[in-house]
Structure prediction request, 314 residues.
Amino acid sequence: MATLEIVQHPHLGGVHLFFNTLDHRSLHIHLDWELVWVLDQPLLVSCGGQEHRVEPGELVLFSPGQPHEFHKVEGSCTFLCLQLDPAAFPAAQRVYTETIFPAAHLTEDETTWLKTSLVALFRRYLQRPPFYQLDCLGRVNQILYLLLTRLPVRQVTEQEAAERERRSARLMRLVAFVQENFAHKIRLSDFARQERRSLSYLSHFAREMLGHSFQEYVATVRFHHACHLMATTNKGMLAVCMESGFSDYRYFSRMFQTHFGMTPEAYRRRPKSSQAAQPHPTLDSAERFYSPEGSLQLLDRLEQQYTEKGPREA
Prediction:
């Protein structure tokens, strides 16, 4: 569902930092700025109706209210994520950018500084030395200043911001509607009646916001649920097909051929470690977060690549 990530270690007001190892995260929205640093495996990012392959070492940035979706390309992808609540940073309120690759607008030195700053920020965030709050907030403001002064950004009016929030809220309701009803016959016309909007309007809305038609999105949700059932149960293929909402087994099989190049039966026979499931997969995600101790171990490895530099003007 369209929710904020929940991270089980300390966080500073308005600032969330965490590592995530992910196979997939379905379409979601949140009202934070989100900066993602891909570390070890390529990550496929769907945003604005387009798909982008993000290579290890690359950064991606999402504006508040920007819908996006994550999928692994090969092995599970680990990334470092910084989320910032605009309400805690007044200068960043009602500011948006269409650019998701910040490095395209930064020099090589600025990109290096950004990465070393993220590592140093996360270490203080986890270790919490005396007055760490001041240090963390200072570093976050430097990072935001660099991004907002280098990237093409636009500050919208209150009316435009309110319209963006209304559209985001409608999309969240649409995603929740699909999550709640995908296992049965589901029609966009039912959601249209619920929203008191025309079917034509919502058909265009779904394609614009999801990057797919409504039925294509429903099929994707059903497919991920089928993968979840195959990874966590011993149910037969026909039961998985029907429980996931597919009424045609041939179409169900074609989905696996398209995504994995094999039949559902062949996918089931793969070793569990290679299936699209982490230790605690859910319908809308297959991902693993880390404890403070595990996060510090990952940070130690990162610092072997990036040495912290002293403060500088962005």
Remarks:
- The chain has a mean pLDDT of 85.
